[in-house]
């Protein structure tokens, strides 16, 4: 079982004045490199935990208060708009990362279709709506085009809980077959999908009877959601293993919860230290959530030191890694395997490492579009399907600045990391993708010494 992240909080209610996040205009990041980073970095709250936690507030009476939410993300903004479109009352304090949600006034079972197209995370609401109201009509999810993310697991999972579910006109229509509500059932996931696991977990919390789910995802975000649900009165057992048991018919009430640090953001900055041959520290961080990446960076020659329980220093200075950093192979997979979200920035690092290294993507078959953009910087990458051969030769590729386009969130940040290591100026368009999942990325890099600017086009 993974260690859970907790902090003590004592904050007054109600929240300060509500703020709304404005949708950013098209912008460009301009990076001049190569650069050396140094300093300490604060890690934001987890986006991948925040979105299902916000959806779970639909199950709760009264108000739920979430702390450490990454409020300056377009994905978070889209999820809040989805909740409001259903009738929820939402108060946001951007400065402190607090979000207060009251869903007592929710009556609609169909969220705004336009907002649903903006984030994959919006689809989480279908589970809570279906189990609370006995029906739901939800548009198919948007997000990055990184491969097929079919909803058949959701459909078959809902059917196992006594629902009728079908796709029509770009929406999923679901309702309780008995006309009253969901019932407990048994379901085996063909693949340990995080989204399907979390959605079915939420749906089962208010179903009549016991639900058993097997081959479920074991990611930290699943544990996080289970903990929030249990704090709110649910009965979820087995989170962090491949089997879940949920006792339904629970009455859930609002609770107060702290979102843990974002392991993908932390991993991205660890890779930033490595690709720039720098030394930076960061906190808060949960090292066990990034054990796979830490092992690979140690193979490359990085020195990784843990201070206290939540601070990590990554040093890739030449005194640690030598003149040329050693490469390594990766294959993505469900937790505790190598995170698919860290594959693109890791590929960027490998372009600067010695030797020929294999990157195999086993989660999303189209998550290789960043390879073409990295090639524009001079990287030697050959892609065949979902596998890439990254060759750095004896000294690692010498990258040079170029004009690039970010096609998705994690692929976009890989271009930023490569730009930090490249000689000259790199310009990156399409950074709205990056803003979906990285809070103030350019500002944080500036604090570490990077020459990076955001330009409005």
CATH topology of the largest domain: UDP-n-acetylglucosamine1-carboxyvinyl-transferase, Chain
- Percent in helix: 25-40%
The coarse overall form would be elongated
Distance between the termini: 48 Å
What fraction strand?
15-25%
Q: How many structural domains in the coordinates?
A: 2
**Which class of secondary structure composition applies to the elements?**
alpha+beta
Mean pLDDT: 91
Radius of gyration based on Cα positions: 22 Å
Number of strands: 23
Main sheet: strands, sense, barrel? 4 strands, mixed
What ranges have pLDDT less than 50 throughout 5 or more consecutive residues?
Answer: 1-21, 143-149
What do these coordinates show?
The protein is α+β, with helices and mostly antiparallel strands. The chain has 2 domains: 213 residues, Enolpyruvate transferase domain (UDP-n-acetylglucosamine1-carboxyvinyl-transferase, Chain, Alpha-beta prism); 212 residues, Enolpyruvate transferase domain (UDP-n-acetylglucosamine1-carboxyvinyl-transferase, Chain), CATH 3.65.10. Helix content is 29%, strand content 24%. It has 15 helices and 23 strands. A 4-stranded mixed sheet has the order 21-22-1-23, covered by helices on one side. It has a 4-stranded mixed sheet with strand order 2-14-16-15. Helix 1 runs parallel beside helix 2, helix 4 runs parallel beside helix 6 and helix 6 runs parallel beside helix 7. The radius of gyration is 22 Å and the shape is elongated. The N and C termini lie far apart (48 Å). The N terminus is likely disordered. One of its GO terms (molecular function) is UDP-N-acetylglucosamine 1-carboxyvinyltransferase activity.
């Amino acid at each position: 079982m993974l260690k859970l992240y907790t902090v003590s909080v004592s904050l007054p209610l109600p929240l300060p004045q509500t703020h709304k996040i404005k949708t950013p205009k098209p912008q460009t990041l301009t990076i001049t490199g190569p650069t050396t980073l140094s300093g300490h970095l604060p890690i934001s709250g987890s986006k991948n935990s925040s979105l299902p936690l916000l959806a779970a507030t639909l199950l709760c009476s009264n108000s739920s208060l979430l702390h450490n939410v990454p409020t300056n993300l377009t994905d978070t903004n889209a999820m809040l708009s989805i909740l409001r479109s259903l009738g929820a009352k939402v108060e946001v304090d951007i400065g402190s990362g607090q979000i207060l949600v009251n869903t007592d006034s929710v009556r609609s079972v169909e969220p705004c279709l336009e907002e649903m197209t903006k984030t994959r995370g919006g689809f989480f609401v279908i589970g809570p709506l279906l189990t609370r109201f006995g029906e739901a009509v939800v548009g198919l999810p948007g997000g990055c085009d990184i491969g097929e993310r079919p909803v058949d697991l959701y459909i078959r999972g809902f059917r196992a809980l006594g629902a009728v579910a079908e796709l029509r006109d770009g929406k999923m229509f679901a309702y309780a077959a008995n006309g009253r509500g969901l019932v407990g059932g048994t379901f085996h996931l063909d693949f340990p999908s995080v989204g399907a696991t979390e959605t079915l977990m939420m749906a089962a919390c208010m179903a009549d009877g016991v639900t058993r789910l097997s081959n479920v995802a074991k990611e930290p975000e699943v544990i996080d959601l289970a903990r929030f649900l249990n704090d709110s009165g649910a009965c979820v057992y087995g989170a962090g293993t491949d089997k879940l048991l949920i006792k339904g018919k629970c009455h859930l009430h609002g609770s107060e919860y702290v979102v843990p640090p974002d392991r993908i953001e932390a991993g991205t900055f660890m890779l930033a230290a490595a690709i720039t041959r720098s030394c930076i520290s960061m906190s808060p961080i949960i090292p066990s959530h990034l054990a796979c990446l830490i092992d690979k960076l140690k193979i490359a020659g990085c020195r990784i030191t843990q201070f206290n329980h939540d601070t990590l220093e990554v040093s890739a200075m030449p005194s640690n890694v030598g003149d040329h950093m050693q490469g390594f192979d990766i294959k993505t997979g469900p937790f505790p395997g190598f995170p698919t979200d860290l594959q693109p920035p890791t590929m960027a690092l490998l372009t600067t490492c010695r030797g020929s290294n294999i990157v195999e993507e086993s989660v999303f078959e189209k998550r290789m579009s960043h390879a073409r953009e990295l090639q524009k910087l001079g990287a030697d990458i050959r892609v065949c399907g979902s596998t890439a051969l990254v060759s750095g030769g004896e000294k690692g590729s010498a990258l040079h600045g170029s004009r690039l386009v970010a096609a998705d969130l994690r692929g976009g940040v890989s271009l930023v990391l490569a730009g930090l290591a490249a000689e000259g100026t790199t310009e990156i368009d399409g950074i709205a993708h990056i803003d979906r999942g990285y809070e103030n990325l350019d500002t944080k890099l500036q604090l570490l010494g990077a020459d990076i600017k955001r330009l409005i086009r």
